[in-house]
Amino acid sequence: MTIIDTIQTRRTIKAFKPDAISEKELNTWLEAASYAPNHRMNEPWELLFIGPETRAALNHKTDFGGAPVLIGVLSKPAASQMERDENVMAVSCYIQNFMLAAHEAGAGVFWSSLGATVRGREILGAPQEHDVIAVLAVGYPAEIPAAKQRTPIADKITYLP
Ligand SMILES: Cc1cc2nc3c(=O)[nH]c(=O)nc-3n(C[C@H](O)[C@H](O)[C@H](O)COP(=O)(O)O)c2cc1C
Protein backbone atom coordinates (compact mmCIF):
# COMPACT_ATOMS: atom_id res chain seq x y z
CA MET A 1 0.00 0.00 0.00
CA THR A 2 1.17 3.53 -0.65
CA ILE A 3 0.88 5.94 2.26
CA ILE A 4 -2.10 7.56 0.50
CA ASP A 5 -3.85 4.17 0.24
CA THR A 6 -3.07 3.44 3.87
CA ILE A 7 -4.53 6.76 5.00
CA GLN A 8 -7.63 6.49 2.83
CA THR A 9 -8.50 2.87 3.64
CA ARG A 10 -8.07 3.11 7.43
CA ARG A 11 -11.38 2.86 9.28
CA THR A 12 -12.45 3.09 12.87
CA ILE A 13 -13.05 -0.57 13.71
CA LYS A 14 -15.84 -1.39 16.13
CA ALA A 15 -16.05 -5.20 15.85
CA PHE A 16 -12.94 -7.31 16.34
CA LYS A 17 -12.01 -10.96 15.97
CA PRO A 18 -10.80 -12.55 19.22
CA ASP A 19 -7.43 -13.42 17.61
CA ALA A 20 -4.45 -12.20 19.64
CA ILE A 21 -1.97 -9.70 18.28
CA SER A 22 1.65 -10.73 18.76
CA GLU A 23 3.50 -8.63 21.31
CA LYS A 24 6.35 -8.22 18.84
CA GLU A 25 4.10 -6.83 16.12
CA LEU A 26 2.26 -4.54 18.52
CA ASN A 27 5.59 -3.24 19.75
CA THR A 28 6.71 -2.56 16.20
CA TRP A 29 3.66 -0.30 15.66
CA LEU A 30 4.11 1.43 19.01
CA GLU A 31 7.82 2.08 18.32
CA ALA A 32 7.18 3.28 14.78
CA ALA A 33 4.54 5.69 16.07
CA SER A 34 7.27 7.41 18.15
CA TYR A 35 8.55 9.03 14.97
CA ALA A 36 5.62 11.42 15.29
CA PRO A 37 6.54 15.10 15.24
CA ASN A 38 6.88 16.51 18.77
CA HIS A 39 8.11 19.92 19.87
CA ARG A 40 11.49 19.97 21.67
CA MET A 41 11.63 16.19 21.31
CA ASN A 42 9.73 15.83 24.58
CA GLU A 43 7.89 12.69 23.36
CA PRO A 44 4.83 13.48 25.50
CA TRP A 45 3.00 10.14 25.02
CA GLU A 46 2.65 7.64 27.85
CA LEU A 47 0.91 4.28 27.46
CA LEU A 48 -1.21 2.22 29.84
CA PHE A 49 -1.75 -1.42 28.98
CA ILE A 50 -5.27 -2.05 30.27
CA GLY A 51 -5.81 -5.38 32.02
CA PRO A 52 -9.09 -7.29 32.50
CA GLU A 53 -10.08 -5.70 35.83
CA THR A 54 -9.61 -2.16 34.56
CA ARG A 55 -11.38 -3.07 31.34
CA ALA A 56 -14.38 -4.44 33.23
CA ALA A 57 -14.50 -1.28 35.37
CA LEU A 58 -14.58 0.90 32.24
CA ASN A 59 -17.78 -0.94 31.36
CA HIS A 60 -17.84 0.11 27.71
CA LYS A 61 -21.21 -0.51 26.03
CA THR A 62 -19.78 -3.01 23.48
CA ASP A 63 -16.72 -3.98 25.52
CA PHE A 64 -14.71 -2.17 22.84
CA GLY A 65 -16.03 -4.48 20.15
CA GLY A 66 -14.25 -7.44 21.72
CA ALA A 67 -10.78 -6.09 20.90
CA PRO A 68 -8.02 -8.28 22.38
CA VAL A 69 -5.84 -5.29 23.35
CA LEU A 70 -6.72 -2.00 25.06
CA ILE A 71 -4.18 0.77 25.45
CA GLY A 72 -4.72 4.05 27.29
CA VAL A 73 -2.78 6.94 25.81
CA LEU A 74 -1.87 9.87 28.06
CA SER A 75 -0.27 13.21 27.30
CA LYS A 76 2.33 14.56 29.72
CA PRO A 77 1.73 17.74 31.72
CA ALA A 78 3.52 20.95 30.78
CA ALA A 79 4.57 24.27 32.26
CA SER A 80 2.23 26.37 30.10
CA GLN A 81 -1.11 25.94 28.35
CA MET A 82 0.61 26.29 24.96
CA GLU A 83 3.04 23.47 25.74
CA ARG A 84 0.20 21.36 27.08
CA ASP A 85 -1.75 21.89 23.85
CA GLU A 86 1.36 21.02 21.85
CA ASN A 87 1.75 17.82 23.85
CA VAL A 88 -1.83 16.83 23.04
CA MET A 89 -1.19 17.58 19.36
CA ALA A 90 1.97 15.47 19.33
CA VAL A 91 0.21 12.59 21.07
CA SER A 92 -2.55 12.77 18.45
CA CYS A 93 0.14 12.46 15.76
CA TYR A 94 1.53 9.47 17.67
CA ILE A 95 -1.89 7.82 17.68
CA GLN A 96 -2.46 8.42 13.98
CA ASN A 97 0.94 6.89 13.19
CA PHE A 98 0.06 3.90 15.34
CA MET A 99 -3.34 3.46 13.68
CA LEU A 100 -1.80 3.61 10.21
CA ALA A 101 0.96 1.11 11.10
CA ALA A 102 -1.65 -1.28 12.53
CA HIS A 103 -3.88 -0.84 9.50
CA GLU A 104 -1.06 -1.50 7.06
CA ALA A 105 -0.47 -4.81 8.88
CA GLY A 106 -4.16 -5.80 8.56
CA ALA A 107 -5.17 -4.87 12.11
CA GLY A 108 -7.58 -2.15 13.15
CA VAL A 109 -8.09 0.39 15.91
CA PHE A 110 -11.03 2.07 17.62
CA TRP A 111 -10.17 5.42 19.24
CA SER A 112 -12.49 5.84 22.23
CA SER A 113 -12.76 8.97 24.37
CA LEU A 114 -14.15 7.02 27.31
CA GLY A 115 -10.95 7.38 29.33
CA ALA A 116 -11.14 11.18 29.24
CA THR A 117 -14.29 11.43 31.38
CA VAL A 118 -13.92 12.06 35.12
CA ARG A 119 -14.94 8.46 35.77
CA GLY A 120 -12.67 7.11 33.03
CA ARG A 121 -9.68 9.06 34.39
CA GLU A 122 -10.31 7.67 37.86
CA ILE A 123 -10.52 4.10 36.64
CA LEU A 124 -7.30 4.51 34.65
CA GLY A 125 -5.61 6.18 37.62
CA ALA A 126 -4.55 9.08 35.41
CA PRO A 127 -2.40 11.57 37.32
CA GLN A 128 -4.17 14.93 37.75
CA GLU A 129 -2.01 16.92 35.33
CA HIS A 130 -2.02 14.33 32.55
CA ASP A 131 -4.50 14.48 29.68
CA VAL A 132 -6.13 11.21 28.69
CA ILE A 133 -6.18 11.33 24.90
CA ALA A 134 -7.59 7.92 24.05
CA VAL A 135 -8.35 4.41 24.93
CA LEU A 136 -7.29 2.48 21.83
CA ALA A 137 -8.96 -0.85 21.16
CA VAL A 138 -6.68 -2.88 18.91
CA GLY A 139 -7.23 -6.15 17.09
CA TYR A 140 -8.07 -7.77 13.78
CA PRO A 141 -11.30 -6.43 12.29
CA ALA A 142 -14.38 -8.66 12.20
CA GLU A 143 -16.20 -5.96 10.21
CA ILE A 144 -14.78 -3.11 8.19
CA PRO A 145 -17.21 -0.21 7.84
CA ALA A 146 -17.61 1.75 4.63
CA ALA A 147 -15.68 4.98 4.31
CA LYS A 148 -17.33 8.10 5.66
CA GLN A 149 -17.22 10.76 2.99
CA ARG A 150 -15.08 13.81 3.63
CA THR A 151 -15.71 17.41 2.64
CA PRO A 152 -13.69 18.43 -0.42
CA ILE A 153 -10.60 20.17 0.91
CA ALA A 154 -11.23 23.13 -1.40
CA ASP A 155 -14.15 23.98 0.92
CA LYS A 156 -11.72 24.28 3.82
CA ILE A 157 -9.15 26.52 2.19
CA THR A 158 -8.92 30.29 2.63
CA TYR A 159 -6.32 32.09 0.56
CA LEU A 160 -4.68 34.92 2.44
CA PRO A 161 -3.27 37.90 0.59
C1 LIG B 1 -10.22 12.55 19.42
C2 LIG B 1 -11.11 11.45 18.91
C3 LIG B 1 -12.00 10.87 19.78
C4 LIG B 1 -12.87 9.85 19.33
N1 LIG B 1 -13.71 9.28 20.23
C5 LIG B 1 -14.60 8.36 19.79
C6 LIG B 1 -15.52 7.77 20.70
O1 LIG B 1 -15.49 8.04 21.91
N2 LIG B 1 -16.42 6.90 20.21
C7 LIG B 1 -16.45 6.57 18.89
O2 LIG B 1 -17.32 5.78 18.50
N3 LIG B 1 -15.55 7.05 18.01
C8 LIG B 1 -14.62 7.95 18.42
N4 LIG B 1 -13.69 8.46 17.56
C9 LIG B 1 -13.63 7.94 16.17
C10 LIG B 1 -14.44 8.78 15.21
O3 LIG B 1 -15.81 8.61 15.46
C11 LIG B 1 -14.09 8.35 13.76
O4 LIG B 1 -12.72 8.60 13.52
C12 LIG B 1 -14.95 9.10 12.73
O5 LIG B 1 -16.28 8.69 12.79
C13 LIG B 1 -14.45 8.86 11.29
O6 LIG B 1 -14.45 7.48 10.99
P1 LIG B 1 -13.14 6.78 10.43
O7 LIG B 1 -12.08 6.86 11.51
O8 LIG B 1 -13.54 5.35 10.14
O9 LIG B 1 -12.72 7.50 9.19
C14 LIG B 1 -12.82 9.43 17.98
C15 LIG B 1 -11.87 10.02 17.12
C16 LIG B 1 -11.02 11.01 17.57
C17 LIG B 1 -10.00 11.62 16.64
From TrEMBL:
<dbReference type="InterPro" id="IPR052530">
    <property type="entry name" value="NAD(P)H_nitroreductase"/>
</dbReference>
<dbReference type="InterPro" id="IPR029479">
    <property type="entry name" value="Nitroreductase"/>
</dbReference>
<feature type="domain" description="Nitroreductase">
    <location>
        <begin position="58"/>
        <end position="140"/>
    </location>
</feature>
<protein>
    <submittedName>
        <fullName>Nitroreductase</fullName>
    </submittedName>
</protein>
<dbReference type="InterPro" id="IPR000415">
    <property type="entry name" value="Nitroreductase-like"/>
</dbReference>
<dbReference type="GO" id="GO:0016491">
    <property type="term" value="F:oxidoreductase activity"/>
</dbReference>
<dbReference type="Pfam" id="PF00881">
    <property type="entry name" value="Nitroreductase"/>
</dbReference>
